[in-house]
Amino acid sequence: MTLKKQLMDRGMKLMTDPRVMKLMQDPRVMKAVMTAMSMPGKVQSFGNEQVEKIAKAMALATEDEVQDLKRTVRSLEDEVAKLRREREAREAAGKKNEKK
């Protein structure tokens, strides 16, 4: 059994305990629980913000900026390919007209 599964099972058993149920009805306890549950997300976003600040201070590209550039390059490559096909089609049509 995995650690996560064990923790979930124990948590479910605790939630059915009348003492815990009474404790969970206290708004202060619920506020503390909600704060604790939101903490990993806050830490993650704070860390990401700090990394971005450091990257900008060092004139480095962030992951988001690199992804944006990749999308732009892909779009431009598609446009170039389209223009080449159109040019080739015009040249082929021009050669047909010259033969006539």
What is this structure's SSE topology?
Blueprint: H1 3-15, H2 18-24, H3 27-57, H4 63-99
What does this molecule look like?
The structure is a single chain. This protein has helices at 3-15, 18-24, 27-57, 63-99. By secondary structure, it is mostly helical. The chain folds into 2 domains: 1-60; 61-100. The longest helix is centred in the last third of the chain and has 37 residues, at 63-99. The relative contact order is 0.04.
Briefly summarize what is shown.
This protein is mainly α.
Percent of residues in helices: over 70%
Number of helices: 4
> The biggest beta sheet, please?
none
Q: What are the segments in which pLDDT stays under 50 over at least 5 consecutive residues?
A: none
Structural class assignment = mainly alpha
Overall structural domain count: 2
By DSSP, the count of extended strands is: 0
> In one word, what is the shape?
elongated
Oligomerization state of this entry?
Answer: single chain
Query: What do the pLDDT scores average to?
Result: 89
The H/E string reads HHHH
Output the keywords.
mainly alpha, 4 helices, 100 residues, 0% strand, 2 domains
